[in-house]
Amino acid sequence: MSRLRSPSRRLTLSAGAALALAALAPVAVHAQGAWPAKPVRIVVPFAAGGTTDILARAVAQELTKALGQSFVVDNKPGAGGNIGADLVAKAPPDGYTLLMGTVGTQSINKWLYARMPFDPQKDFMPITLVAGVPNVMVMNAEKAAARNINSVQDFIKLAKANPGKLNMASSGNGTSIHLAGELFKSMTGVYMTHFPFQGSNPALFSLMAGDMDVMFDNLPSAMPHIKSGKLKALAVTSAARSQALPDIPTVEEVGGPSLKGFEASSWFGLLAPAGTPADVVNKVQQATARALATPEMKERLLAQGAIPSGNTPAQFAQHIDRELKKWQPVVKSSGAKVD
Fold first, then answer.
1. Which of 151, 187, 305, 321: CA 20 to 30 A from 158?
2. Cross-strand pairs, 44
3. 239 versus 294: which is more confidently predicted?
4. Of 50, 333, 339, residue with least CA distance to 179
5. What distance in Å separates the CA atoms of residue 66 and residue 41, rounded to the nearest whole number?
6. pLDDT (0 to 100) of residue 198
7. Average pLDDT over residues 154-161
8. pLDDT category, 33, cuts 50, 70, 90?
9. Distance, CA of 71 to CA of 57 (rounded, Å)
């Protein structure tokens, strides 16, 4: 039997295929327009209880209400946030796996780690900057009182008198908390032993237990412990004082000549895997921006020391690019490196 088919037969098959595609097209459009049709996972690349986790849960709650599906926070700590971020970078770009990225995962780790499992720009679609926060230099309140540490200058004197004997906690290698401490060390010439934890919360508990001596934590996660009196705040690491702690000076204000120009703030934002449909990205951005603009959410975040944003995907992409350029020389000058 000949493989050749008559023109009429070929026409019949083409017409049938066209009809089949036409019948499927509304289904595909409907499926795309129905997002989210199932729960959405927001990966937090740090342990529960830290600022990344606090902000992710606040946003997840609002997105659940706004978009009619559950947004569930999934903590995947490790490697300074790289484990969780890499999981999202390699997830299907269907809008059902998002990342609460940080200045560490998106702007610092590229310069800090010898080998990166993902590209912070090429492998992600920026959605929106959620909030920016200062870090705060904190000590165990009892240890600070016992050592008569009441200021940054007091701490510098203590550290210089005890080289290598003070322990500095962080939420992980490459985080803004770690790098703020490294910047402080390089500018003051003090030496402290760095202990990276898998998130801010376990680091804070170790600090409050008296095992660690100092931490440059994100303000929202440290705030409850400062208010309870368990932690003593020496200074904030931003260029200006925080509205949440107006009586606490900046590091630059009280650090003396060696700390002139010191600034190491943090930020947190939502990202999706590269290739995620633009309409999904825009839907998440718009719902997040509306939530962050409400008086209730503004008041809630500002009270914790966070400054809400909600900018556009394009603006967030530009922000990440600027931050990458900013932190490259800082990491290099600090000498910090992770193999």
1. 305
2. 75
3. 294
4. 333
5. 15
6. 87
7. 96
8. low
9. 9
Distance CA 218, CA 306 (A): 9
Give residue 335's pLDDT band: very low, low, confident or very high (50, 70, 90).
Answer: confident
Q: State CA 336 to chain mean position distance.
A: 20
Can you name the residues that pair with 97 across neighbouring β-strands?
41
Per-residue burial over 252-261, b if 16 or more Cβ lie within 10 Å, else e, is beebeeebee
Who has greater pLDDT, 337 or 236?
A: 236
Q: How far apart are CA 117 and CA 189, in angstroms?
A: 33
- State how far the Cα of 201 lies from the Cα of 231, in Å rounded to an integer: 13
User: What is the DSSP-derived secondary structure letter of residue 79?
Assistant: G
pLDDT for 55 equals 95
**Residues 274/280, Cβ–Cβ less than 8 Å:** no
Give the span between the Cα atoms of 213 and 205, in whole angstroms: 12
Asked if residues 150 and 144 have their Cβ atoms less than 8 Å apart, the reply is yes
pTM of the model: 0.79
Alpha-helical (H) ranges within 197-238 are 200-208, 219-228
State the Cα–Cα distance between residues 325 and 61, nearest whole angstrom.
Answer: 33
Residue 47 has pLDDT above 50, yes or no: yes
Residues 6+ apart with CB under 8 A from 88: 43, 97, 98, 99, 124, 271, 272, 273
Q: Per the structure block, which two tokens stand in for 274? A: 């590269």
Percent of the chain with pLDDT over 70: 90
Query: How crowded is the C-beta side of 326, counted as CA atoms within 13 Å?
Result: 16
The per-residue DSSP string of 41-67 comes to: EEEESS-TTSHHHHHHHHHHHHHHHHH
Please list, in sequence order, all residues whose beta carbon lies within 8 angstroms of the beta carbon of residue 30, skipping any fewer than 6 positions away.
none
What are the tens digits of pLDDT across the range 79-118? 989 999 999 999 999 999 999 999 999 999 999 999 999 9
CA distance 268 to 133: 8
- 133: its two tokens: 């926060």
Here the tokens at position 43 are: 């990966």
